[in-house]
Input
Amino acid sequence: MVLNFKMWAGLIQNFNTVILNRSPSFLALAAALVLGAHVHGVQASELPKDSVDSIMWENVAKQFILSDQEGSDKIVMDDRVQVVAPKIAEDQMNIPVHVDARGIENVRKIVVIADLNPLPKVLTYRPEKAAPRLSFRIKVEQGTPIRAAVLDGKGVWHIGATYVDAAGGGCSQPALAHSQNDWVSTLAEVRAKIWRSPAKEFSTLRVTIKHPMDTGLADGIPAFYVEDLVVKTPSGQRLGRLEIHEPVSENPTLTLFPKIKGSVDHVVLSGRDNEGNLIKVSVPAPVQSSHLQK
Amino acid sequence: MDKIRRHLLLGAASSLAMPILPAYAETFQYDLKAVRIAQNSYVVIGKREFFTKENGGDIVNIAFISTSEGVVVIDTGPSQRYGVALKKLIKQTTGKEVVRVYNTHFHPDHCLGNQVFKTQDIAALPKTISGLKVSGDGFSDNLYRLLGDWMLGTELTIPGIPITFSSEKFGEHRFELLPMQGHTDADLAILDHTTGVLYAGDLCFLDRAATTPHADLQKWYEALKSLRKTPHKVIFPGHGPVDSTDRSIDQTDQYLRWLEGQLVASVKNGKDMIEASQMSVPPEFKSIDVIKDEIERSVAHLYPGLEEKLLPFVGQGDG
Output
């Protein structure tokens, strides 16, 4: 494939991610953090006590929350941010997670982090015209806290977290796709459905995309993952926007809750992976009215 | 994890934890009892639980049949220590040597006691053998994590005899070997024609929820149908009590069909895996142990496949 402008733009945009893909740089960065490098002006002592007592909390806060220019340095632990996942992972390659921040007003974005993953950042979701909640599945390298940092309209970070126990190796195992010879032929196949009822403000959109989501940590397999997914109306209004990272499971499967109004009869899903492959599909959004069905 | 590192970790963990270890951990002795269920036929019945550091993985059913040529063993348990205890029990009960060991399928609670028997005496379906070659070490690592020191010394032993024949005779006992699938891609049911005992392996569970990590439900329903048609007096399920009324077939079939129905409805109603796990259990399944935990595990095993089948295709990217 020829490198195009979009790809370079993507690479520059995701500079941070690219650094994290290269393990020596990542290790150096991690080491620097462990040694107490000063990433941001806030001292560790000002951080609220972590609700799940993660040994990485201070580093996670510095690296992924306080360094984010969109927010302030005000962080609160907030049980209105619910992170739901099984206590014990049955399949460390596929741990279901639901984040619900409907208790927080004017949510600008939801940043999901798995503290003890070699690549901790899972995704960032901007529910622009959507309920501030979503479901997805992730892979983990070992038992880890999974946390959501929710940025509100005033720039305050609200943190919710849970802990998942797991057997080792989810991030450094090759995707199952690599054991099938024909995986390229189904790459970026999209299955999706919208459940829409006039009685409800938000619809339910479920989508699953065929993609190996390679982390770059399995031997000899470079990072290859969907990094961007946007939900729009046919006229181009954005309903929600996802920035996706390596820990999201193979064949990313997501549930979002967009607000679909009036005569809009479908939404457009568009996205791309880190090699520049583009996804663009439309998903029908018929109104399912219970009295019409009878 | 390599074995040396595994042992070092366990060693370090046990020396650190020594002062607070409960009594069971100091002994790591399996308390196995043989129950006679038919002429020359004995079973060891496991607890109806999941793997824990308390039960040491003694959660599986084992059988042995004392023939005039020697003892035939069906499945070997979760660990080397279990195998040692089983072998001792067999000797005490029958006074004879083991001449044949069958592994009903490749799950670790049925195969990791293999190493105390002779490789050339252990028989399994060809796909059980290939499955163990691919996944056996991973299974073993996972049991080290779940059971800790109970697993010390356990090494995977691959069966030496692929079963490509349909029956075997030892002394007066003729064993019909019935290759099936559904619980895994190779499930061996064994009918002892002399006693009428049908050893169903994990195709049948009774009052302990069926497990589905490698299940193909449609094939499993077919296997249960053919087990029902196989003439037998008693069924010995892979988990749960001895069954003389076919309840283990009925219950496994009803539970799996109910579970599949719930999962299909959940996908069709737009639920995610976490919501799908929160189903309420109907009263007829109240006798089934660890059902809530197994439902959650089964959602993890089966839901992605159902989503791929049931969510409509809307297009493909330009990959």
User: Anything to note?
Assistant: Residues 3-247 of chain B form a domain with the Metallo-beta-lactamase; Chain A fold (CATH 3.60.15.10).
